[in-house]
Design a protein that fits this description.
two-stranded antiparallel sheet, two-stranded antiparallel ribbon, transmembrane helix, mainly alpha, transmembrane, MFS_trans_sf, disordered C terminus, transmembrane transporter activity, 606 residues, POT_fam, 68% helix, Growth Hormone, Chain: A, globular
Length: 606
C-alpha cells in the first residue's frame, strides 16, 4: 500500500522531466531556426564575395567600397574632362586646325567615348563582370593619356609655330594620326570604364534591405556630385597647368591619377560584392526577336496563362499586353522542344519565357526617353567647344592674372555642384516630408534639365550678339588680342547648362538603371551613355550641315574659321528652337511613361 504513492510520485517526476525535456528541445529548435534565419538574412541575395561564396552583409558592400568605386570615376572624369575642355584651344592654337574642324574633333572624340560604353556593357554583362571590366579599361585609358602626354611633348609631333594666319601650317597626317591614336585609346578606356562604374557602385547596396535601399537613394546624386569634383579640378588646376606650364605635364598628371585610381580600386577587392556574369543581354534580346518573328502568323492563346513560363516564382515578371507582337515568342508550338539526353528542353531561339519577353519590353520602353534626351548633350557640346572659343576672344584678366579660356567651364561645374548640393540637402528632405517621396521623379528631373539647357542656348545667343557687336565696332582699329568685353558675360550660359546637366544626368541614370531588368543593368547604363555619344555626334553633324548651308558667295557663313566673322548667335538660336520642339516631344513621352507605370503597378497588385 505504501509503494503505490511512491510509484505515482516517481511517475509524476518522470512526466515533469519529460515535459522539461520537450520544452528544452522546443527552445533549441526555435533557437536553431532563429540562428538559421539570421544566417540567411546576413547573406546578400544574388551577390558573392571575391572568393565566389555568398556575400556576407556585414563584411561586404556599403559606403566604404562604394567610395572606392567613386574614386576611380573621379579620376576618370579628371582625365577625360581635363583633356576635352581645353582640347579645342590646342587643336586651333598648336595644331592650326580651323575652328569648326577643331570643334568636330572634340565632339567626335567625346561621342566615341560614350558610344563605346555599349561595348563595355556587353563585355561586363556577358564575360568579364563589372570589376574586371573597370580595371582593364582603366588601364587602357592610362595608356592613352600617357601617349597623349608624349605626343604633345615631342616637337616632331606638332607643326611649327606661326606668327600670322598666312604663315600657319596645319598639322600633317602623321602628326594628327598620333594624336588620334592617343585620343581614341582614351575613348576606348572611358567607354569600357563608365558603363560599369555606376552599376558596380549600386551592386554594393541591397535593394531588398530597407536600410541599404535608403542609402542607394542617395547614391545616384552623390555619385554625380563627386565626379563633378573631378571635373572642377580638371577645368581649374589642369587647364591652368596645360596653358601656363605645359600640355605634356597636364596630360601626364591625368595618366598618373588614373594609375593611382587603379591601385585604389584594387585595394577594395575583398570588400566588394560581385554579381555573376550571365548570358549577354544582346543575345537574350535577339532570341526574343527571332522567336517572335518566326511565330508572327500564329494566333494568341485565349488565356495568357498558357504562354510558356518556367522562371522561379520570385524572379518572374508579370505578363503585359503592351507590344503584343513580342508575346508570340512565348507561344508553345510544335518543334519548340529539342531532345537533350533523356529529357526534352525548349529551343531558346524558338521559345522564350514570359519573363524574358517582358525584360525585352522593359528595354523597349526606355527608347522614347532615350531619343528625346539626346539633344541636351548637343547643347552641352557647345560648352566645351564654341563657348571656350568665345572666351578666348574676350577680356579674361583680373588684376594681372589671365584666366585660361578653358577654365571658364568652372562656372559650368559650379552650376552642377550647387544644384546637386541644393537638391541633396534641401529638396530631397522637403519633398519627402511634403510628398512622401525622396525628391523629384526621374522624369521630372530630366524635364527640368531640358528646360534649363534650352534657356542656356537662348541666353548664349543673346550674349554672342553682344560680343559680335563689340567685335564689329572695334574692327581693325585695335591691336589687342582680346575684345574689350568681359568674359564673365558667358557665366549665365555655363551656369544654366551646368545646372541642367546635374538634373538630367542623375535623372537619366536613375531612369535607365531602376527601370531595366536586373540582368541588363550594365547594358542599360551603356544605353543611357549613348545619349551623350549621339548628342556629340549630332553636334558634329549639325556643325557640318550649318557650315555648308550658310556658306555662300565666298562668305564663311554662320561658323566661320574666325568666330568674329561668323554668326555663332544664329547657331545658338537654332539650338534653342530645336530645344523647344524636343521638350514638347519629351513631355508627350513622359506622360506616356507615367501612364505605363500606373498600368504596371495595377498588374503587380493583381
Amino acid at each position: 500500500m505504501h509503494a503505490l504513492p511512491q510509484i505515482v510520485k516517481v511517475s509524476s517526476e518522470l512526466e515533469g522531466r519529460e515535459r522539461e525535456s520537450e520544452s528544452f528541445i522546443g527552445r533549441l529548435e526555435k533557437e536553431n531556426k532563429e540562428t538559421m534565419n539570421e544566417k540567411i538574412s546576413s547573406k546578400v541575395e544574388d551577390a558573392v564575395d571575391y572568393k565566389g561564396f555568398p556575400a556576407e552583409r556585414s563584411k561586404t558592400g556599403g559606403w566604404v567600397p562604394a567610395a572606392l568605386i567613386l574614386g576611380i570615376e573621379i579620376c576618370e572624369r579628371l582625365s577625360t574632362m581635363g583633356i576635352a575642355v581645353n582640347l579645342v584651344t590646342y587643336l586651333g592654337g598648336t595644331m592650326h586646325l580651323p575652328s569648326s574642324t577643331s570643334a568636330n574633333v572634340v565632339t567626335d572624340f567625346m561621342g566615341t567615348s560614350f558610344l563605346l560604353c555599349l561595348l563595355g556593357g556587353f563585355l561586363a554583362d556577358a564575360f568579364l563582370g563589372r570589376f574586371k571590366t573597370i580595371v582593364i579599361f582603366a588601364s587602357i585609358q592610362t595608356l592613352g593619356t600617357g601617349t597623349l602626354a608624349v605626343s604633345t611633348k615631342l616637337p616632331n609631333l606638332r607643326p611649327p609655330s606661326c606668327h600670322s594666319n598666312e604663315d600657319c601650317k596645319e598639322a600633317s597626317g602623321f602628326q594628327m594620326g598620333i594624336l588620334y591614336l592617343a585620343l581614341y585609346l582614351i575613348a576606348v578606356g572611358t567607354g569600357g570604364l563608365k558603363s560599369s562604374v555606376s552599376g558596380f557602385g549600386t551592386d554594393q547596396f541591397d535593394e531588398k534591405n530597407e536600410a541599404e535601399k535608403t542609402q542607394m537613394a542617395y547614391f545616384f546624386n552623390r555619385f554625380f556630385f563627386f565626379i563633378s569634383l573631378g571635373t572642377l579640378t580638371a577645368v581649374t588646376v589642369l587647364v591652368y597647368i596645360q596653358d601656363e606650364v605645359g600640355r605634356s605635364l597636364g596630360y601626364g598628371i591625368c595618366s598618373i591619377s588614373m594609375f593611382i585610381a587603379i591601385l585604389v580600386i584594387l585595394s577594395g577587392t575583398k570588400r566588394y560584392r560581385y554579381k555573376k556574369s550571365g548570358e549577354s543581354p544582346i543575345v537574350s534580346i535577339c532570341k526574343v526577336l527571332v522567336a517572335a518573328t518566326k511565330k508572327r502568323n500564329m494566333d494568341f492563346p485565349y488565356d495568357s496563362d498558357m504562354l510558356y513560363e518556367n522562371t522561379p516564382e520570385g524572379s518572374r515578371i508579370h505578363h503585359t499586353n503592351q507590344f503584343r507582337c513580342l508575346n508570340k515568342a512565348a507561344i508553345v508550338a510544335e518543334g519548340d522542344y529539342v531532345k537533350n539526353g533523356s529529357s526534352m528542353d525548349p529551343n531558346p531561339w524558338k521559345l522564350c519565357t514570359v519573363t524574358r519577353v517582358e525584360e525585352v519590353k522593359m528595354m523597349v520602353r526606355l527608347l522614347p526617353v532615350w531619343a528625346t534626351t539626346i539633344l541636351f548633350w548637343t547643347a552641352y557640346a557647345q560648352m566645351i567647344t564654341f563657348s571656350v572659343e568665345q572666351a578666348s576672344t574676350m577680356e579674361r584678366s583680373i588684376e594681372g592674372f589671365n584666366i585660361p579660356a578653358g577654365s571658364l567651364t568652372v562656372f559650368f561645374v559650379i552650376g552642377i555642384l550647387l544644384t546637386c548640393a541644393i537638391y541633396d540637402c534641401l529638396i530631397i528632405p522637403l519633398w519627402k516630408k511634403w510628398k512622401g517621396k525622396p525628391g523629384f521623379t526621374d522624369l521630372q528631373r530630366m524635364a527640368l534639365g531640358l528646360i534649363l539647357s534650352t534657356l542656356g542656348m537662348a541666353v548664349a545667343a543673346v550674349v554672342e550678339m553682344k560680343r559680335l557687336s563689340v567685335a564689329k565696332s572695334v574692327g581693325e582699329s585695335t591691336t589687342e588680342k582680346s575684345l574689350p568685353v568681359s568674359v564673365f558675360m558667358l557665366i549665365p550660359q555655363f551656369f544654366l547648362v551646368g545646372s541642367g546637366e546635374a538634373l538630367i544626368y542623375t535623372g537619366q541614370l536613375d531612369f535607365f538603371i531602376t527601370r531595366s531588368p536586373k540582368s541588363m543593368k550594365t547594358m542599360s547604363t551603356g544605353l543611357f551613355l549613348t545619349t551623350l555619344s549621339l548628342g556629340f555626334f549630332m553636334s558634329s553633324l549639325l556643325v557640318s550641315v550649318v557650315k555648308k548651308v550658310t556658306k555662300s558667295n565666298g562668305g564663311e557663313g554662320w561658323l566661320a574659321n574666325d568666330i568674329d566673322h561668323g554668326r555663332l548667335d544664329c547657331f545658338y538660336g537654332l539650338l534653342a528652337i530645336l530645344g523647344v520642339i524636343n521638350l514638347g516631344v519629351y513631355l508627350v513621352v513622359a506622360a506616356w511613361n507615367k501612364k505605363e507605370d500606373k498600368a504596371t503597378e495595377m498588374v503587380d497588385v493583381v
